[in-house]
Amino acid sequence: MATVVHLGDERSAAGLRLAGVLSRVPAPGTEAEALAQARQGAVLVLLDAGVAARLPPALLREAAAALSPLLLVLPDVDGRVPVPDIAERLRTQLGLSA
Questions:
Q1: Per-residue pLDDT tens digits for 80-94
Q2: d(Cα 59, Cα 8) in Å, to the nearest integer?
Q3: Is-contact 8 46, C-beta < 8 A?
Q4: Residue 93: count of CB within 10 angstroms of its CB
Q5: Are strands 4-7 and 22-24 parallel, antiparallel or unpaired?
Q6: Which pTM does this prediction carry?
Q7: How far is the C-alpha of 68 from the C-alpha of 83, rounded, in Å?
């Protein structure tokens, strides 16, 4: 059976559990270990932006680049971690920003 794993805050975890998602709230400092465990058996890992911000950048890039499991970073429900401006990033990459 396909498994979806969520790593994030308790409030998001409670809602996602109602939808049948295996949700964990990693303690500070254990985010990398929790991500490694989640990647072992999941087909999709939902990662809260707050948890993603506490991961080493190289580890987050490696997990995002992997073909399996898929990794999706969700916006922080409390707004503590700003959501990147994707439109501005694309304009910059395409050389369209001033």
A1: 777 767 788 888 888
A2: 17
A3: yes
A4: 9
A5: parallel
A6: 0.81
A7: 24
For 37-77, the pLDDT digits (tens) are: 999 989 999 999 999 999 999 999 999 999 999 999 998 87
Single out the residue of 62, 64, 36, 37 nearest to residue 49, CA to CA: 64
Cβ within 8 Å of residue 22, ≥6 positions away? 3, 4, 5, 6, 42
CA distance 91 to 84: 13
CA dist 78 and 68 (Å) reads 29
Strands 44-48 and 70-74: parallel
Q: Please report, as a single letter, which amino acid is at residue 21.
A: V
Can you give the chain as a three-state secondary structure string?
CCCEEEECCHHHHHHHHHCCCEEECCCCCCHHHHHHHHHHHCCEEEEEHHHHHCCCHHHHHHHHHCCCCEEEEECCCCCCCCCCCHHHHHHHHCCCCC
